[in-house]
């Protein structure tokens, strides 16, 4: 089963780029990698998803090396409102192997 | 517009008194999930429905049951809540074509 490991916490100053890495050594061939953001007392919110190489959208980039055993979420120029917990999730829709990582608590400092 | 709706947002029950949490969706997604999230922990998948097919996680206690009467609604029944079942319960949906999950706001359950 594809379990994930992330740093417990990170601090960053406003305006900096933040990179959060997730390890998923047992990722299966059909698994996708998805990142979610969660604010206190809210449900997680989708940020970005990828299968391999690099994916970019309006809020983040996701870098996945060829072996897919890790992935890095990159948040450009963070602001105070990016303070949240970021989760890496590896798995397939409808499959019995969906595990959220421990989550990384990002604190953005003024 | 709300896409995944959970009711109630806050639920208080007594030890051992059955409780039902509800989730509805306007996305017409065929997969619906229930997660339990305790304080400062990651969401933990309890079970999910792929259409009408129920999939239970191996370590989900028998105390937790689920019903999905139609595409739009899914219920979480806790037959005899214990103090350890106090948590945020999150409902999520996804289509069969992508792995993106859309989460509701959650129901925070307190057990007295």
Task: Please report the distance between the alpha carbons of the first and last residues of chain A.
Answer: 39 Å
Discrete helix count of chain B: 0
Q: Please identify the oligomeric state.
A: heterodimer
Query: Which residue ranges of chain A are poorly predicted, with pLDDT under 50 across at least 5 consecutive positions?
Result: none
Uncertain spans of chain B? none
Distance between the termini of chain B: 34 Å
**Proportion in β-strands of chain B:** over 45%
Shape of chain A: globular
Number of strands of chain A: 10
What is Rg of chain B?
Answer: 13 Å
Q: Strand tally of chain B, please? A: 11
Largest sheet of chain A: 6 strands, mixed
Radius of gyration computed on alpha carbons of chain A:
13 Å
Helix content of chain B: under 10%
Structure report:
The complex is a heterodimer of chains A (110) and B (112). Chain A is an all-beta fold. Chain A is built from no helices and 10 strands. The radius of gyration of chain A is 13 Å and the shape is globular. Chain B is mostly beta strands. In chain B, the strands form 2 sheets. In chain B, strands 2, 4, 5, 6, 9, 10 and 11 form a 7-stranded mixed sheet that branches. In chain B, strands 1-3-8-7 form a 4-stranded antiparallel sheet, with no helix packed on it. Chain B is globular. Classes of the chains: A mainly beta (110), B mainly beta (112). The interface between A and B is medium-sized, with 23 and 29 residues.
């Amino acid at each position: 089963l594809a379990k994930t490991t992330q740093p417990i916490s990170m601090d960053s100053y406003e305006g900096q780029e933040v990179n959060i890495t997730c390890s998923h050594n047992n990722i299966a061939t059909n698994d996708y990698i998805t990142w979610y953001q969660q604010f206190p007392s809210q449900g997680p919110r989708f940020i970005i998803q990828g299968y391999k190489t690099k994916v970019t959208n309006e809020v983040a980039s996701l870098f996945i090396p060829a072996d897919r055993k890790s992935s890095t979420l990159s948040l450009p120029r963070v602001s105070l409102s990016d303070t949240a917990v970021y989760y890496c999730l590896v798995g397939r829709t409808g499959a019995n192997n969906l595990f959220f990582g421990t989550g990384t608590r990002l604190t953005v400092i003024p | 517009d709300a896409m995944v709706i959970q009711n109630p947002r806050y639920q208080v029950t007594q030890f051992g008194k059955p409780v039902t949490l509800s989730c509805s969706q306007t996305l017409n997604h065929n997969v619906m999930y229930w997660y339990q999230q305790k304080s400062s922990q990651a969401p933990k998948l309890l079970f999910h429905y792929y259409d009408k097919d129920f999939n239970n996680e191996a370590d989900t206690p028998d105390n937790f049951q689920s019903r999905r009467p139609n595409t739009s609604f899914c219920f979480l029944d806790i037959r005899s809540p214990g103090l350890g079942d106090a948590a945020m319960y999150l409902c999520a949906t996804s289509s069969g074509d992508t792995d993106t999950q859309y989460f509701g706001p959650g129901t925070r359950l307190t057990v007295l």
